[in-house]
């Protein structure tokens, strides 16, 4: 889990919970890594996720600065997910 925390990218926007990758990086400890690893293992074993993992903030971003900001088709959605749900995705990929 420590390696997954280290792989977080800095300066990423937080989701609804306000937790950024820097919170996990600067707060990283053996205890945090152990708790997160156990938590993720339990989620996978019980095949359940907290409802908050399904929540994301969707922000429209203009595809190109030269496009008209008045046209809905000129935007693409960006979804900000919880830092913890992103780590769970990487945890599953690394298993």
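Sequence proposed for the structure above (95 residues):
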């Amino acid at each position: 889990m420590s390696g997954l925390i280290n792989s977080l990218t800095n300066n990423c926007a937080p989701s609804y919970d306000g937790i950024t990758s820097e919170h996990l990086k600067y707060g990283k400890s053996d205890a945090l890594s152990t708790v997160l690893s156990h938590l993720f293992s339990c989620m996978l074993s019980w095949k359940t996720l907290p409802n908050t993992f399904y929540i994301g903030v969707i922000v429209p971003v203009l595809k190109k600065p030269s496009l008209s900001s008045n046209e809905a088709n000129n935007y693409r959605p960006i979804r900000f997910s919880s830092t913890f749900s992103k780590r769970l995705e990487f945890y599953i990929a690394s298993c």
